[in-house]
Design goal:
The protein is α+β, with helices and mostly antiparallel strands. It folds into 3 domains: 29-55, no CATH class; 72-157 and 312-453, Orthogonal Bundle (MetI-like fold), CATH 1.10.3720; 181-303, no CATH class. The chain contains 15 helices and 8 strands. The chain has helices at 2-9, 16-58, 72-77, 81-112, 118-126, 133-143, 152-164, 221-224, 318-343, 347-355, 360-388, 392-397, 403-406, 409-417, 424-453, and strands spanning 181-183, 189-191, 200-205, 233-239, 263-268, 271-277, 283-286, 295-298. A hairpin with a 2-residue loop joins strand 5 (263-268) and strand 6. Helix 4 (81-112) runs antiparallel to helix 11, helix 4 runs antiparallel to helix 14 (409-417) and helix 10 (347-355) runs antiparallel to helix 11.
């Protein structure tokens, strides 16, 4: 009977002792949780919160930190040409690098699905992520070296150039003063005395080392004794130097070498009327000439400096070159993340599109990309945050003379504060600017993560 009455009366209020026990249990749980979180909060405060607050406060003081200057550092920051260059380069990084990386990652992720050794290919592309930025910077500093003997990119550029255009064999050759040859403004050499058909002329040059002579070079003395016919003008281009001394300047000696492969032209009234290429002994001849006076010219192409390649680290290309190094490192990261999103796509939608007659390009453009839009956005925004902080590659790859042309906000902040400027007030203002630029991207990313969780 008592049990029936208690049941009908409903649940009884808990005793005060039960409430106290539950309150103590919750308090103990909060204390335990706080004890576990406290080290992380302490590190967060010491490594993030305090430096941020200190930098904001420091940005309102002068270089010594003793005098309050208000917003002068922020005003000076936008008057400094180096800072404006850093802002411009950072904008280029933010627009170009994430866009290229996201596009490359998407294309590679789609293509990798269609090959047999997909895992090995992903591993190869992701391996640069294991290389530190310091090591990657040194690697690309060597790869971009302007000396083709050191820089692999310029070695390739020189090889391709020389395959389509012959390089000069005598870039350092020159004529002796007063030996019958004068140098024109365009770099060519011409005879001072006129010659007529039937004559033989000798064109002596110096400045060519014996070890730099072509392998087929032969002694030049046979050409000096040849007699030209009535309608031909003959000559010899030779090295007017005898190893060990001796010989006579301006004349072909038996021990002097011809200079093969040189182009010579017969010039009349300022126009080239005939051309020839010197043989192994340096001899050449112009046939079928009309009677009259001619001068012989060695065009400037014979003395052109060899193609040295591309100035990758010059003021014009240094920023694109460094972005190229960044792409090498981060392409695998973008490909793996986008590939993970691609693997989660509903296959029935893709198969239905194929059954409806859509080709692969239409499927990629109308189905794959729209379905991957959330993943692509996360990858793009993450890379935007990353490139705003880029420092190592720019500082290591860019040579000293072009450091200001390649500088970004992070490197400019370091240079102003510690790299010779010794103005930590201005450097702190640059740090605050960089923080303000990064915060919107971080907030956007956090909101997207929260939206995906909901």
């Amino acid at each position: 009977m008592t049990a029936t009455l208690l049941k009908e009366a409903g649940p009884q209020p808990a005793a005060p002792a039960d409430h106290e026990r539950k309150r103590r249990a919750r308090r103990r749980a909060r204390v335990i949780a706080l004890a576990f979180v406290f080290p992380a909060l302490l590190l967060l405060g010491a490594l993030v919160v305090y430096p941020v607050l200190f930098s904001v406060g420091r940005s309102f003081f002068d270089a010594s930190g003793d005098r309050f200057v208000g917003g002068d550092n922020y005003t000076e920051m936008f008057r400094d040409p180096a800072t404006l260059t850093a802002v411009r380069n950072t904008a280029i990084w933010v627009v170009v690098a994430p866009t290229l990386l996201t596009g490359l990652g998407l294309v590679l992720a789609v293509l990798v699905e269609k090959i047999r050794w997909a895992t090995a290919f992903k591993l190869l592309l992701f391996m640069p992520m294991a290389v530190s930025f310091l090591a990657a910077g040194i690697i690309f500093r060597l790869a971009y070296d302007e000396d083709p003997e050191k820089g692999v990119l310029n070695a390739a550029a020189v090889s391709v150039h020389d395959a389509f255009k012959d390089a000069s064999s005598y870039p350092n050759a020159r004529a002796r003063d007063g030996q019958g040859l004068t140098k024109a403004a365009d770099g060519s050499y011409g005879t001072t005395a006129a010659a007529s058909p039937g004559d033989t002329v000798g064109l002596g040059l110096v400045g060519v080392r014996a070890e730099d002579l072509p392998g087929d070079a032969r002694p030049a003395y046979p050409a000096s004794g040849r007699k030209a016919s009535a309608d031909e003008l003959r000559g010899v281009v030779y090295l007017d130097f005898t190893r060990g001394g001796g010989g006579e300047q301006g004349k072909v000696d038996r021990t002097e070498s011809g200079l093969p492969g040189m182009k010579a032209e017969a010039v009349r009234d300022g126009k080239s009327v005939a051309s020839a290429t010197t043989a192994a002994d340096g001899s050449f001849r112009f046939q079928g000439l009309d009677p009259g006076s001619y001068t012989v010219r060695l065009p400037a192409s014979n003395f052109a400096a060899p193609y040295e390649g591309i100035s990758w680290l010059g003021p014009a290309l240094v920023t694109p070159a460094i972005i190229g190094a960044y792409l090498w490192i981060w392409t695998g990261f973008a490909m793996v993340l986008i590939g993970a999103g691609l693997a989660a796509l509903p296959r029935d939608a893709l198969e239905a599109a194929r059954m409806d007659g859509a080709n692969e390009w239409q499927i990629f453009r109308r189905i794959t990309v729209p379905l991957l839009a959330p993943v692509l956005t996360v990858v793009f925004v993450t890379l935007v945050i990353n490139v705003m902080k880029v420092f190592d590659l720019v500082y290591i790859i860019a040579p000293g003379p072009v450091q200001e042309d390649a500088t970004v906000l992070a490197t400019q902040m370091w240079l102003v504060s510690f790299g010779g400027g010794n103005n930590q007030g201005l450097g702190s203002a640059l740090g605050v600017l960089l923080l303000l630029l990064v915060i919107p991207a971080m907030v956007f990313n956090v909101r997207r993560f929260r939206g995906s969780q909901r």
